[in-house]
Amino acid sequence: MKVENDIISIGGVKAAELAETYGTPTYVYDESRIRENYRRALSAFQEYYPDFRFFYAVKACNNPAIVSILKSEGAGIDAASVNEILLAGKVGLGGEEVMFSGNFLSDDDIERGLESGVIFNLDDPSILPRVLKQGKPEIISFRVNPGYGKSNVGDFVTNAGPDAKFGVHPDRVMAAYKAAKDAGIKRFGAHMMPGSCITDPEYFSFITKLLMDIIGAAAKELSIDFEFIDLGGGLGIPYKHDEKGLDIKKAAKLVADTFTAKIAEYALKPPRLMMEPARYFVGDAGYIVGRVHSIKDSYKRIIGMDIGMNTLARPAMYGSYHHIYVDGKESASRARVGLCGQLCENTDFWVRERELPANIAEGDIVVVENAGAYGYSMSYQYNGRLRPAEVLVNDGRHALIRKREEFEDMVRSTTIPDWLAAE
Ligand SMILES: Cc1ncc(COP(=O)(O)O)c(C=O)c1O
User: Fold this and answer.
1) Residues 235-255: pLDDT tens digits?
2) Core-most of 83, 177, 249, 370, by most CB within 10 Å?
3) Which residues are catalytic?
4) Do 252 and 338 belong to one domain?
5) Atom of ligand 1 nearest to the CA of 234
């Protein structure tokens, strides 16, 4: 994104042109930025551990155009559900290019996961017998809860440790792999996902050590090899302008050093090292272009616009910060205002106070930064405020990649029972 003479452009296209062409609110993704982010991270990790691979966690931004960009860069897919497996299939990825890390799987999830031949990454050993009842996966991985988690998104996204719902307790990991081995499984992987949006490189080597000590002990005791070790996602991005970003090279080196030291310590056959980030690839490549509709002076000045918690849930859900720009007015003097969307919920007052251009006015175009991850994919239709459009930009080109929802999308799957229709 660029602000030149106060005029905002994204991927070489003016925000005003995007608003005019596609309406507001619209999610806009910069293809070049996604590719840059991916390549920067991949080259860092491959420099220090060549047998390294990324699987993209599609939950963060599941538009097939975005997923196909990551596929073209060489990523596999981390899928949380059968529908995300189908999404991977839509862009041509299947089988062991897809890791199925679902939670509390239903029998139907298991059946369809087995049919698709994806890697099963089980959240608990109790699921294994239900999987084996339906078939034998070629490869089994367990999601380990290494007893520690961390997050820059408050406690909300701490995915491991005693209070997390995810993963296998360290004391049960050995028994989990033993059960899989006893059932005739011959290929193994291991996984964890202890936190999100971490910008401290040392965290990644710390969690690598935790997992490798658990896995190293299991490998030795059970005489099994691990084909891959997946450290999860969590590569962070700065949301506030005074925050420091992640030194990816440092993180990669620290992880690789710890990983290779642990391979030697436990005399492991070197596994493939994997990670499954999402935010790092797409977070700062996505924006929301919206419009101010009215301004009211009440207990404070409130700017009412068409971006609300239905469009971007993170601020109301996690208290997250997103920087906001006003097109054409960035160099104006500042005043403290609040920002709201259009929902009948006071949590939709999603910026309680922020310094914005004092001359902000009805009709102005606003741009919300760092909205590419957990943005559109967490949006919803409450109050009949339907989901926005999605647009891809690249070097001056732009294309619609998802239509704005219409009334028909709100009622498409509904039916009125006969006895009511007859009334
Ligand atoms: C299992 C799993 N893997 C990967 C990710 C991606 O995390 P991030 O966007 O922090 O990289 C998530 C996010 O919640 C996840 O649940």
Assistant:
1) 999 999 999 999 999 999 999
2) 177
3) 344
4) no
5) 10
Atom 7 (ligand 1): residue with closest C-alpha?
Answer: 233
Distance CA 189, CA 380 (A): 35
Per residue in 147-204, pLDDT tens?
877 777 666 666 788 888 899 999 999 999 999 999 999 999 999 999 899 999 999 9
> Which amino acid, one-letter code, is at 24?
T
- pTM > 0.90: yes
**Ligand 1 pocket residue status of 61, Cβ below 6 Å:** no
* Rounded Cα–Cα distance for residues 303 and 344 (Å): 15
Query: What is the pairing mode between strands 226-230 and 187-191?
Result: parallel
Question: Residue 276 Cα, ligand 1 centroid: separation in angstroms?
Answer: 7
**C-beta of 276 in contact with ligand 1 (< 6 A):** yes
Pocket test of ligand 1: the residue of 100, 193, 370 to mutate, having most ligand atoms within 8 Å of its CB, is 193
Cβ(279) to ligand 1 under 6 A?
yes
Q: Residue 42: give the domain boundaries.
A: 31-280
In the numeric block, which tokens belong to residue 300? 């404070």
* Beta bridge partner(s), residue 344: none
Q: Is the pLDDT of residue 109 over 70?
A: yes
Residue of 198, 199, 229, 195 whose CA lies nearest to 211:
229
- Whether 216 and 337 map to the same domain: the answer is no
Ligand 1 centroid to Cα of residue 143, in Å, is 12
Peptide linkage before 25 cis (omega within 30 of 0): yes
- Over residues 346-360, the mean pLDDT reads 96
Letter for the amino acid at 1?
A: M
Domain boundary among 280, 310, 344: 280
Model confidence band, residue 367 (pLDDT cutoffs 50, 70, 90): very high
Q: Kindly state the percentage of the chain with pLDDT values over 90.
A: 94
Q: Are residues 15 and 77 in the same domain?
A: no
Cα of 296 to ligand 1 centre, how many Å?
39
- The number of distinct structural domains making up the chain is 2
pLDDT beyond 80 at 205: yes
- Among 265, 280, 295, the domain boundary falls at 280
Count CB-CB contacts under 10 A for residue 57: 28
